[in-house]
Each structure stands twice: as structure tokens, then as C-alpha cells.
Amino acid sequence: MDDAKPVNSAVTAIMLTNTSTTAAFPLSPVWEIFSGPRYKKHSSSFPESTKFLHSLVKQKLGDTRLHQTLTNVVIPTFDINHLQPIIFSSYRVKEKPTLDALLSDICIGTSAAPTYLPAHYFKTQDNKGNVKDFNLIDGGVAANNPTLVAMGEVSKAIINGNSDFFPIKPIDYGRFLVISLGTGSPKAEEKYNAAEAAKWGVLGWLTSEGSTPLVDVFTQASGDMVDFHLSVVFKALHSDKYLRIQDDGLSGDVSSVDIATKKNLDELVKVGEGLLKKRVSRVNLETGMFQPFAQETNEEALKRFATILSRERHRRHSRTPQGKAGGFYQNGVKN
Q: pLDDT digit string (tens) for 255-307?
């Protein structure tokens, strides 16, 4: 793997998204979502949608397994059979070989959002013949904001004396550099209220004005709690090494999970480009909204962080016996 290269650059990844998602997420009749996931394997309206998505993921990732990633990663999922989170971590593979699944299976599993995509089943077998079954759905159920999960994996690696990291004192978060990238939220839109929700039954909580309120509530709550926690911790440490980039002002189609028209995808690109020019913000713990707190823009902060990471990567690469340059880059976490 020493001569391995990334499958895609950031630019080509965006191009792939723009050319593939319309086929993967076609518009569906409302009535069909009551008989299964919106994008199920067998549907009268779009029988090929899930099949296309799965085949695309498998085509791009091939036979690559978790231990073969170019850098260490942390991918949370949730196993509905055991009702517990399953964390696919590069470091855990060494102690739990049954976690060394195909990346395609892991990605399909962690993207299987309830009511949108079908749960994904697969199994692995290690060299001793031990078999592990997985019944996975979206990792966002367990960790919609996986920053703390990644930091936990780094901390365990340090405790276990991994050569990629220098020893640190317990809860020494000041040594962490964290970049957390959100995917946007419609929080400012305030599209739900108690008077309306009081009339909802099961169907109302599952679908309202093109959204899924129940999913929105759980994912926003879990994601915000992580951000609240880390904002307080890093503020208490007088550290500027936590950067959260999130747009909480999305509304309409751009705030949807699955509207994959070319127009909407182009709008999302514009939102991302505009977010780079905005000042670095932190969540207001009273209102839950993001407010600018520095003169530095997100773009400038990312360049500063990238310089720090690049220098650290080269330094660690020169001394690590592994070929991954040490550390984690999931959600930007780096010790």
C-alpha cells in the first residue's frame, strides 16, 4: 500500500456526486414510503435506485477493506439486531479482525438512514474462522456528529501506547486539533412547533411537508449535544483548536436529505462556497444558533489548520513504522 493513491480528489468527488445522485435518489410517490424505505430494492416506481447506489459504491471501492485505508478512519454504524453502535475503526481492526469488512459494505450500512434506505446485512470471517454478522443502519442514529467518537478512538490508542501518539494526561483535550464539518441544518427555519406536532400520530412524526420530523429531532439533538460539549471544553481550556463549520440557516430544498435534482445540488455547492467566506462561528449555548466569534473566516481557519496538520503529518510519517502517517483524520480529529 506504500504506492497507493486516493480514489478521488475533493473536486472529482463533487463531480461524481452531481452525476450519480439523481439516479440513486429519484423522486418518489408519497404513498410508497408507507410500505417501506423511500429507496427500497424493489419498488414499482424506481426498482433500480437502491441497486444503482449499492453497485456504484461497490464499483468505486472494489475489494478494499478497512485496514487498507490510506489514513486511519472511524466510521460509526448502528446494529439493529443487537441494538448497539458498531464502530469501524482502523485501530480496532488489529484487536478485532472481524471488523475488517469491505469498505463498500461499511459505507452502504452507515448510509442506510431509516425510512430512506433499507438496512444492510453482511458478514465477515477472520483467519481463525470466526464469523461476525452485521445488520446495519445509518451511523447517525448512534453518532450524528461523530467527533467525540473519533476523539475517543484516539484517546484509546494513546492509552494503549500506540506509537503514532505521544503520551498525554487524562482528558488533555488541549493537545487535540479538531475540525468538525457539518452538513447543514434547517434550525433557523423553525419549521416545527408544538401546536402542530400535538396533532401528529405515527405518520405525522414520520412525514411532514416532505421531511421526517422524528429523524430530524433525533439527529439534530445528538449532533448539537456533541458540539455543545466540545465548545464548552475547548473554551474552558482557552484553546482555539476546535473548528466547527456548520450552516444552520438552510431552508427549503437545500435542507432536504434526498432531493437530488441538478438545481438543488448546484445550490448546495453555492451554500458550501458561501460558508467558506463566513467568519468562524461557535454555537451560542443559550439559543443553540451559531454566532461569529472571530475575525478569521472559515476558509482562512481551514488553511491554518491544514498547515499545522501537514507539518505534523510529515513529522510523524518520518518516525511511524506504519504506512499511514499516524493519527486520525475522521471529522478532522488529529492528536
A: 887 787 888 889 999 999 999 999 999 888 788 788 898 899 999 999 999 99
What is the domain extent for residue 214? Answer: 164-315
Q: What is the pLDDT of residues 69-128, one digit of tens each?
A: 998 999 999 999 999 999 999 988 988 999 999 999 999 999 998 888 899 999 999 999
CA distance 146 to 135: 20
Residues in contact with 111: Cβ distance below 8 Å, sequence separation at least 6, in sequence order: 117, 138
Beta-carbon contacts of 19 under 8 Å, excluding residues fewer than 6 positions away, are none
103 Cβ neighbours under 8 A, 6+ residues apart: 61, 64, 65, 66, 68, 69
Q: Residue 176 corresponds to which cell in the numbers above?
A: 487535540
Q: 133 and 19, same structural domain?
A: yes
Contact between 154 and 231 under an 8 Å Cβ cutoff? The reply is no
CATH code at position 229: 3.40.1090.10
